[in-house]
Amino acid sequence: MNENKAVQVRRLADNARIETLRMLATLGNGHVGGSLSVCDALAVLYSGRLKHDPQNPQWEGRDYLVLSKGHAGPALYATLALRGFFPLETLQTLNRVGTILPSHCDRLKTPGIDMTTGSLGQGISAALGMALGLKAQQKPNRVYAIIGDGEMQEGQVWEVLLAAPNKGADNLIVLVDDNGQQVCDFTRNINDIGDPAVKAAAFGWHTETCDGHDPAAIDAAIQACLDAKMPGFIRLKTVKGKGWAAMEGVVANHAMKGLTAQIVAEPIAQLTAALEEKEEA
Ligand SMILES: Cc1ncc(C[n+]2csc(CCOP(=O)(O)OP(=O)(O)O)c2C)c(N)n1
């Protein structure tokens, strides 16, 4: 990825962070930390990696994304809106009665959402099933799944790690948003998962580890997985709450309550200033 493209992708990621903070402030609560940490990976996927058509979300030629850590729905909704799947104003209806944007992803409600998620562990299983189904039909579409490091404590995740290489799911790439935190503590203090890439490699995956906030590094890791022609597993080293300096890496950033426009004004101002700098560069 060249520098110009990387700047564009960073812009999409930071705009998604701003929109995420805005919608969570309108609602008054929500999953801040795990939404902000995943914005760069989403921005890379929706900037060329994932075949998609915002005008035709059900396009048969599309690649599929399963946001297995479905509580980060707001970050994905922001990215989809910025890519033109639905109007930006719709974001302000997050989790309201009648909305197309429930707090966790629902494939029957939202254009661009391919799998219903929220029960941790299940999305990655669905992703493997989708990948194998596509292969059985000899279709070229790929499936990407994003899971959390806390989510890796779910036994179901390890069934997929075991099965995907055995079943030859070389059209599946799993990205772990390894921000080192889960609900109310650091993952290492609850049930340490160690280095997930080392473990996935032992199960037979092609693995990559990169800075999950560096678009060029994420993009290169995806390319390396594609080149390997094996199930791909990317450990994204991320910071929970990325982009809201005061909340980065603090335990209280998971599901925040009492959010208001005033509270998110500071991080939005910082992100906006960073965007303006990029504009001038
Ligand atoms: C099966 C299941 N158990 C519990 C929860 C409640 N829950 C929501 S988010 C979360 C923490 C997940 O941690 P991680 O996957 O690391 O996500 P992140 O830190 O990136 O937000 C938990 C336990 C759930 N959604 N599903």
Plain-language structure description:
- By secondary structure, the protein is of the alpha/beta class.
- It has a single domain (3-280), classed as 3-Layer(aba) Sandwich (Rossmann fold), CATH 3.40.50.
- 44% of the residues lie in helices and 12% in strands.
- It is built from ten helices and seven strands.
- The protein has helices at residues 3-27, 33-36, 39-49, 73-82, 122-136, 155-166, 187-191, 196-202, 215-228, 261-280; strands at residues 29-31, 64-67, 143-148, 172-178, 206-211, 232-237, 255-257.
- The strands form two sheets. The chain has a five-stranded parallel beta sheet, with helices on both faces. The protein has a two-stranded antiparallel ribbon with strand order 1-7.
- Strand 5, helix 9 and strand 6 form a beta-alpha-beta unit.
- Helix 3 (39-49) crosses helix 9 and helix 5 (122-136) packs parallel to helix 6.
- The longest helix has 25 residues, at 3-27.
- The two termini are 18 Å apart.
- 48% of the residues are buried.
- The protein binds thiamine diphosphate.
- The site of thiamine diphosphate has 19 residues, from helix 2.
Write the layout of secondary structure elements.
Layout: H1 3-27, E1 29-31, H2 33-36, H3 39-49, E2 64-67, H4 73-82, H5 122-136, E3 143-148, H6 155-166, E4 172-178, H7 187-191, H8 196-202, E5 206-211, H9 215-228, E6 232-237, E7 255-257, H10 261-280
Parallel strand pairs: 2-3, 3-4, 4-6, 5-6
Antiparallel strand pairs: 1-7
Helix pairs in contact: 1-3, 1-4, 1-10, 3-4, 3-9, 5-6
The structure holds thiamine diphosphate.
Thiamine diphosphate (TPP) binds at residues 33-34, 37, 69, 71, 118-121, 148-151, 177, 179, 181-183, 240.
